[in-house]
Amino acid sequence: MSASDVKLFLAPMEGVVDWVMRDTLTRIGGIDQCVTEFLRVTDRLHPESVFYKNCPELKTGSRTRWGTPVFVQLLGGHAEPLALNAQRAVKLGALGVDLNFGCPAKTVNRHDGGASLLKSCDRVFTIVDTVRKAVPAHVPVTAKIRLGFDDPSKCFEIAKAVEEANATWLTIHCRTKTDGYKPPAYWEWIPQIKERSKIKIIANGEIWNVQDFNRCREVTACDEFMIGRGVLSNPFIFNQIKQSLNNETVETMNWERAKPLLPQFFDASTLFINDYFAVSRTKQWLKALSLKNQEAKAVFDEIKILKKPAEFKAALLARVAPAENPELVLA
Questions:
Q1: Is position 103 annotated as part of the catalytic site?
Q2: pLDDT-based confidence at 325, cuts 50/70/90?
Q3: Which of 64, 61, 60 is closest to 18 using CA atoms?
Q4: End-to-end CA distance of the chain
Q5: Could you tell me which of 135, 191, 193 has the C-alpha nearest to residue 166?
Q6: How far apart, in whole angstroms, are the C-alpha atoms of residue 142 and residue 58?
Q7: Gap between the Cα atoms of 281 and 287, Å rounded
Q8: What was the pLDDT predicted at 321?
Q9: Which residues are bridge partners to 37 per DSSP?
């Protein structure tokens, strides 16, 4: 198997993978597909401006500046409003629509969204079916689920509902809602689902490095994978996986390669929203990098208390050398 036989997705992490992060990570490379943060749908049709804010890539053919396709993700509990918003997303140029049935956040679940819908396979079916029928047949409609709300054996019924509603593919985060993000991810459920359903499945959960990817592929026999937190701690993981599949030398993840990304990310986040937002998001990413890198942790511990943008940026630049590799500089 080579890299051309595998497709890698960037997970749509709410409050993390916004336009700037998608732009940054797809610039580094290795990502075949992105999905936006969820757009919360209640009972109304969002104005076009909301779609453009959630997915600025709609103005560039629903692709990042580096050519990576981006689907719009919708979250909600009512089929008809979701269908209307899916139609608008497609009208604005979305290459596909993803439906969120996996978010474990308490606030989302209290308001009838995300993984709370996994309690009712009928509702999952109705939502996917209604959205699928509302948009042109050539536009993919996909779903992202967990194994269940609190019972992983519900995954068979849920997957069947998504399949019978004619979703294009199904991403499975291999934990229940009540598991949250607590290790491990139960990849072993995927081959059992495959025995009962024919829908294409994307495996998701606990892929932090090439070794995890290889184990997940061996257990699930999937050809498509979604990675979230793993790329925040190692921005080069997608490239590493593809290099490994091609039997090439696998580039290393080290602080010297990662740190030039941070001031670029800060500046881009400032332009996207504002400099206070940039401080928050840069701290967030630096903390994620700290999980697997002691040098990143040392920098994070030194500057995490800083709140004023100018002060924070100066401290960051004092600890992070300018990018030496022009290929990693964001234009």
A1: yes
A2: very low
A3: 64
A4: 34
A5: 135
A6: 18
A7: 10
A8: 63
A9: none
For the record, the structure tokens of 42 come out as 């209640």
CA distance 96 to 141: 6
What is the CATH T-level fold of the domain 3-245, as seen in this structure? TIM Barrel (3.20.20)
DSSP 200-264: EEEEES---SHHHHHHHHHHH--SEEEESHHHHH-TTHHHHHHHHHTTPPPPP--HHHHTTHHHH
For 227, the token pair is 């990675």
SS3 35: strand
Tell me the domain boundaries of the chain: 3-245, 255-325
Nearest-Å Rg of the Cα atoms of the chain is: 20
Q: What percent of the chain has pLDDT over 70?
A: 97
The active-site residue, picked from 34, 103, 155, 216, is 103
pLDDT of residue 1: 73
Phi/psi at 249 (5° precision): -65, 125
pLDDT digits (tens, 9 = 90+) for 271-311: 999 999 999 999 999 999 999 899 999 999 999 999 999 99
Token look-up 């495959």 returns: 194
Cα(287)–Cα(312) distance, integer angstroms: 15
Angle subtended by helix axes 309-319 and 261-272, to nearest 10 = 160
